[in-house]
Amino acid sequence: MVFTFKGQLDAFSEKQFKTFVTNNLKNDLPFVIDLTKIDFLDSSGLGALVQTSKECKKSKLGFSVVGNSRVAQTIKLVRLGDFLNLKSSLEDALNYLKN
């Protein structure tokens, strides 16, 4: 499954993001969070991604994050790339989940 988000992932949208992702964790299917259309990612958004990662690891559910250069740079700046399974393209993320 691929979930594509657009706009901003910040303090104002983080609750909606977490609710959406949590509801879809019940599917027990590996998924990709596609953030290539996100214009802005702040610490609240990063917190939501970290929480998602923790929930997935607890449930042994595969997931990966794909971001545009701005999002990827923000994630790497706080050294969360490996923790969030950050990949450079949707194709890379899907291949990661197949393995």
Automatic annotation (TrEMBL):
Pfam family, one: STAS
Coiled coil: none
GO molecular function: anti-sigma factor antagonist activity
Domain of life: Bacteria
Domain named STAS: residues: 1-97
Protein family: Belongs to the anti-sigma-factor antagonist family.
Protein name: Anti-sigma factor antagonist
